[in-house]
Design goal:
The chain has about 120 residues and is an alpha/beta fold. The chain has two helices and seven strands, in the order βαββββαββ. Strand 2 and strand 3 form a beta hairpin.
């Protein structure tokens, strides 16, 4: 059958996760669904979800100067194998059973935009 694309989630830059989670809650009505330390958080309202990722513009910055999107899927393995065959990713790019409850992999496009493919296993 293959991989089923489920939804796309924008990942927004944040210089201060705690501050920004509080702002989104107060100013937009989004509620927190999860937070991983001070590096990453998920927010939701109705059927919408946005994620915040720490960003500081430094060499250790995970945003790498571009935007980020996350594409959630069901049955991640077929699309991972497809992207390996295309030369987009390598075996080492697959992260299984992350602390935040996913199997996932990611890559950068030609403009340093990060694209993560993620499967919820929680």
């Amino acid at each position: 059958m293959g991989t089923k694309l489920v939804r796309i989630i924008p990942v927004l830059e944040s210089a201060d996760i705690d501050r920004d989670v509080a702002w989104y809650k107060e100013k937009t009505g989004f509620e927190i669904s999860f937070q991983h330390e001070k590096m990453y958080a998920g927010l939701y309202r109705d059927e919408f979800e946005i994620h915040l990722q720490w960003h500081a513009g430094t060499a250790d910055d995970p945003m790498n100067g571009g935007a980020v999107i996350r594409i959630d899927v069901k049955d991640i393995q077929p699309i991972f194998e497809e992207f390996k065959q295309r030369g987009t990713v390598k075996d080492a790019d697959f992260r299984a059973k992350t602390p935040w409850g996913t199997n996932e992999f990611g890559f950068y496009d030609l403009n340093s935009n990060a694209i993560f493919i993620s499967e919820d296993i929680g």
